[in-house]
Design goal:
mainly alpha, about 0% strand, globular
Length: about 90
């Protein structure tokens, strides 16, 4: 599970040394944040929110993980997509 503290660490690392290309994760990741919380975290970390990327990434709620299903948590596709990571 990617909790807000871990999400912040990933964003900071991505700002320091961009994660390029594809990533490998084992299974679907539960993201413990809503879309609004994630956007706020990105703003707090001065991550550039590109308008075209915001339009391109459809807001999807997590419907695939046991913990995230039925919550307002964003999907891992949204989490990584807003960082420009496939």
């Amino acid at each position: 599970m990617i909790v807000p503290t871990l999400a912040r660490m990933i964003v900071r690392e991505h700002l320091y040394k961009p994660i390029d290309g594809k990533i490998l994760i084992l299974g679907r990741q539960t993201i413990g944040m809503t879309y609004e919380q994630y956007i706020e975290l990105l703003k707090q970390e001065n991550y550039p929110l590109f308008e075209d990327r915001l339009k391109k990434i459809a807001i999807k709620m997590d419907q695939k993980t046991r913990v995230g299903k039925g919550t307002n948590s964003i999907s891992d596709d949204v989490f990584f997509g807003l960082l420009g990571i496939e």
